[in-house]
Design goal:
Elements: H1 2-17, E1 20-21, E2 44-46, E3 54-56, E4 59-63, E5 78-85, E6 88-89, E7 91-98, E8 102-112, E9 123-127, E10 130-135, E11 144-147, E12 151-153, E13 156-164, E14 170-184, H2 189-211
Antiparallel strand pairs: 1-14, 2-4, 3-7, 4-5, 5-6, 5-14, 7-13, 8-11, 8-12, 8-14, 9-10, 9-13
Length: 212
């Protein structure tokens, strides 16, 4: 009986390893922080600390209807922003962990700065050092849902980065609701056969014992 339970545990683990990860592997997907308010011109903060995101250069968190946004936030009252000022663009990133190999993609909402006359900022999304998407929201449009390409990642720690593409004189893009889509790599058929074989072997052994 103990051997049968062991075999069942193995098969159960194999089944779990090939399932879909429904939970978002990112933290603070909507950039909510108490470090900045909303509804006034100065409602933005560059390179804030104390969040799940790491900001660099011209990037940060903006409050709804603030100077850097000029519009609402789709989820909560804050959004992340990338800015390129005089040819220097900002970025923000977050590390995430996987317990096993998986195909991973990300979706998010983005739009241009609503109270500024220049065009919106183009940007790349990278996982580690690989570009998984290049985006440029239509100037003057509302928040639009974008999806990156999927990338096969090994178990361990990885980094998601939103990187502005340098432009002049002053371009910005707003980003919110960053979500992950994680599909575990299917278990090879040979491994499934191994698990099934264990069950069959233990079942046969039990029948022989009973017959004896």
């Amino acid at each position: 009986m103990k051997k049968i339970k062991t075999a069942l545990s193995i098969v159960t683990l194999l089944a779990a390893s090939s399932s879909l990860h429904a939970a978002n592997i990112l933290q603070d997907s909507s950039f909510e922080t108490d470090q900045v308010g909303s509804g006034y011109w100065g409602a933005q903060i560059y390179n804030p600390g104390g969040t799940a995101w790491n900001f660099s250069g011209y990037s940060g968190i903006g409050g709804a209807w603030g100077g850097i946004t000029g519009t609402y936030a789709p989820d909560g009252t804050k959004v992340g922003f990338l800015q390129s000022y005089n040819g220097q663009a900002g970025s923000f990133s977050q590390q995430f962990s996987l317990g096993q190999s998986a195909n991973v993609s990300f979706d998010f909402l983005a739009r241009d700065r609503a109270n500024w006359g220049f065009q919106d900022l183009s940007f790349n999304v990278l996982v580690d050092s690989t570009v998984v998407g290049s985006f440029n929201p239509v100037f003057g449009s509302d928040y639009t849902l974008f999806l990156t390409n999927a990338i096969l990642l090994s178990a361990g720690t990885h980094t998601l980065t939103f990187q502005g593409i340098a432009a002049s004189p002053d371009y910005s893009v707003l980003i919110d609701q960053v979500n992950s889509n994680v599909n575990a790599v299917p278990v090879p058929a040979a491994v499934w056969l191994f698990g099934s074989g264990l069950l069959g072997m233990f079942g046969l052994g039990k029948r022989k014992i009973n017959a004896a």
